[in-house]
Amino acid sequence: MIRNFEDFCWELGRCGFSMGGGNAKGIFALIDYDWIQQEQLDTPVKWHCGDPEVDPWEWRMRVLEERKDIAYSKVFFKTSGFITREWYPCFYAVRRRGESFAEVYERGTVSHTAKRIYDIVSEGPAALHEIKALGGFGKEDKASFDRALVELQMRLFLTMTGQKQKKNRYGMEYGWNSTVFTTVEHFWSERGFEIPKLDAEESAQKIRERILLLNPEAEEKNIRKFIVG
Questions:
Q1: Is the same domain home to 93 and 202?
Q2: Total structural domains within the chain
Q3: Average pLDDT per consecutive 10 residues, the chain (229 residues; last block may be shorter)
Q4: Are residues 90 and 110 in the same domain?
Q5: Model-wide pTM > 0.90
Q6: What is the DSSP-derived secondary structure letter of residue 124?
């Protein structure tokens, strides 16, 4: 029974990974949108109620700000998901195959827009509005910018690390919070963890076995897409 943020973190640690956003996508979501209604559970958990203790929407940022063992970003099906520190090296091995960003860019498998974004964030964590300003991205670049940012997260080059507000010329905060991004390596280094090198094929098989444990009815095509991105 998940009744609050602490329960969620404990269960996520047991599972290892989960879709975010309340949609299982045929794989697994620790708490989907219909969870309470379908199971008729006696729990205060409620989506989008604004209470950080019981609102799963609020937990995506809380894990980044309060935990050292959970990553959250757009990592599954080009949408959000959680991966614990225990399982992150497996996905890292599959998605990165031991290659640096420079190597994949040289091979032409990531876009120039992705390189512009990555070059900015590799200098240090940067909020979304800061990346756009530093990179000179305008409204006409929105589509390519959004695609590239998702691509960088899916391939585990960049990840979310929190949020911050814009500041005016007087240093006063205003507007909505803006997501902050950092490199995957920096994210885990800040949390005292160095990602070990694992075999990609063995890691993929290990993830597949865990998926089927969490959801025995998961279809193979969805499993493969979930694993390789």
A1: yes
A2: 2
A3: 94 97 92 65 84 94 97 98 98 97 96 98 97 95 97 98 82 81 98 97 98 98 97
A4: no
A5: yes
A6: S
